[in-house]
Design brief:
Blueprint lengths: L2 H16 L6 H17 L1 H12 L3 H27 L2 E3 L9 E9 L2 E5 L7 H12 L3 E5 L5 H14 L5 E3 L4 H8 L5 E5 L2 H13 L4 E4 L5 E4 L5 H13 L11 E5 L3 H16 L15 H10 L4 E4 L3 E2 L4 E2 L2 E4 L16 E7 L2 H9 L6 E5 L3 H10 L4 E4 L20 E2 L5 H6 L1 E9 L14 H11 L1 H13 L10
Parallel strand pairs: 3-4, 3-6, 4-5, 6-7, 8-9, 8-15, 9-14, 13-14, 15-16
Antiparallel strand pairs: 1-2, 2-18, 7-17, 10-13, 11-12
Length: 483
């Protein structure tokens, strides 16, 4: 699609939006129901595409890519009418009396959504649900890396929705840059920080509001009070889900020195329990998305001591679940988000050591703490900045649609999911409505001391009265001396 076609497409969407077609709540609900029906009708095709792109186990793909989306659609349909109602707020008396004030949630207009490859279906449709329920038109740019999923998304949207309401754009980085030259009303990007900076720079040229969902090195802390068997299962599950290609997967573990060996043994047991003797032949373990990412991850294992795993098979883009220690923060694996099934292990003696180290790093998207110590829990939550996280679990905060999901500083800006998606793609329009029966003239020119006293008596009556009373008892000013 050439630049002119992008411009024509956006113009058609602007005309559709300006005509008011997306404003009725009934329209939005109908479109969400169509979206859910589309997903359910083509569930097998979607799962097949995810299998071809990432070799995702069907159960894992069903949970994280399809049921996550249909559950969110149901949640939005249930609550949308309430969210969209104008909110009446307090009108200050007497300054704005008589009148009343409301906040209206209005859609931005034409929205660009750019999605990543690690959850190519879910991370395309989840923000799109937010844009739709808020009453926007959408151009979706799915990731070209996961070709089969991109193709099924394009096919389904073209079949079930008019292009002047929802449509897709296909291509690589050149496609993204062409899209960013256009004037959008809102941009939503999920991906890496380096690309996120380019997106933000392009958005700034048009002063376009933006949400960035990035990533980072999300720490996992295990103190000596943790249930190690439970912690090991949750950490290994999170680190091997989608072969570790999850933006909120634990990136590294800090474990108390007294329980490192016990935690490692439980982790090894969990890997064996989940995937058997050889994860390569397990139906429950995915693959790295492509050769580029495989080579990057393989090179990250050149430093450190591999405690478990480390097996690779390049032709299948396979990297086994791997535990590694004896690393420094200067090693390449600690200089970037791993985004794979490799888990560095560090030890600590005091929780303050962990806090000091993490404070030196870029702000993570997620943080996980396994503990029964309330003091440690309080210290971690209050002293460390991060997007969101869990106590005694990993990644599951993303499953609660009542919680906002998003990053902070280097891990992103803005948030979404459930009500927060509706709010993200809506502008809060403030309206004050004045009753015309009364119109006090004290604020109109020409000004006088009498009007000033009237204004003060209205807006700060007690302060004015106190000053007036104090003036009764104040001594008269001394007579001015004359030369």
């Amino acid at each position: 699609m050439i630049q002119k076609q992008y411009s024509e497409l956006i113009q058609k969407q602007r005309e559709f939006f300006s005509a008011g077609h997306t404003l009725p709540i009934s329209f939005r609900l109908d479109q969400l129901k169509i979206l859910k029906k589309m997903i359910n009708l083509h569930r097998v095709d979607i799962l097949d595409a995810l299998k071809k792109d990432l070799d995702k186990p069907n159960t894992e793909a069903l949970l994280s890519e399809i049921l996550f989306i249909t559950h969110e659609i149901d949640f939005v349909i249930k609550h949308l009418k309430k969210w969209a109602n104008p909110v009446r707020v307090t009108t200050p008396f007497p300054m704005l009396w008589p009148g009343h004030s409301h906040i209206f949630k209005v859609p931005y207009g034409c929205v660009l959504i750019i999605s990543p490859w690690n959850y190519p279906f879910m991370l395309s449709l989840s923000p799109m649900i937010g844009a739709m329920c808020a009453g926007n038109c959408v151009v979706l740019k799915p990731s070209e890396v996961t070709t089969h999923t991109q193709n099924i998304i394009v096919q389904l949207i073209q079949t079930h929705f008019p292009s002047n309401y929802l449509t897709t754009a296909v291509g690589g980085a050149d496609c993204v840059m062409k899209l960013l030259r256009e004037q959008w009303d809102y941009i939503f990007f999920t991906g890496g920080a380096s690309v996120g900076k380019k997106i933000m720079t392009a958005a700034a040229l048009h002063l376009t509001p933006i949400t960035l969902e990035l990533g980072g090195k999300s720490p996992c802390i295990v103190d000596y009070t943790a249930d190690l068997d439970y912690a090991a299962r949750r950490i290994i599950w999170a680190k091997t889900f989608n072969a570790g290609q999850v933006c909120i997967a634990p990136d590294y573990v800090y474990v108390h020195h007294t329980c490192k060996e016990r935690l490692l043994q439980q982790m090894k047991h969990a890997i064996h329990q989940f995937f058997g003797e050889d994860p390569l032949i397990s139906d429950s373990y995915g693959r790295i998305v492509n050769q580029k990412q495989f080579i990057r991850l393989k090179n990250l294992m050149n430093k450190g001591n591999i405690l478990y795993g480390g097996q690779v098979k390049q032709e299948e883009c396979y990297i086994s679940p791997t535990l590694i220690d004896q690393l420094s923060w200067e090693d390449p694996i600690m200089q970037e988000e791993i985004f794979g099934p490799i888990l560095p292990i560090f030890t600590f003696h005091h929780i303050e050591e962990v806090i000091d180290r993490i404070q030196l790093q870029p702000t993570p998207l997620a943080l996980y703490l396994f503990t029964q110590d309330k003091n440690n829990e309080k210290k971690i939550i209050t002293q460390l900045p991060f997007g969101g996280g869990c106590i005694n679990d990993c990644m599951m905060h993303i499953a609660n649609l009542h919680l906002p999901f998003g990053g902070l500083r280097t891990s992103g800006m803005g948030h979404y999911h459930g009500r927060y998606s509706f709010d993200t793609f809506s502008h809060c329009q403030s309206i004050y409505k004045k009753t015309v029966l009364i119109d006090l003239n004290v604020a109109y020119p020409p000004y006088s001391q009498k009007k000033t006293r009237g204004i003060r008596l209205l807006l700060e009556p007690w302060e004015y009265i106190r000053e007036y009373i104090r003036s009764w008892f104040s001594p008269p000013p001394p007579p001015s001396s004359s030369k």
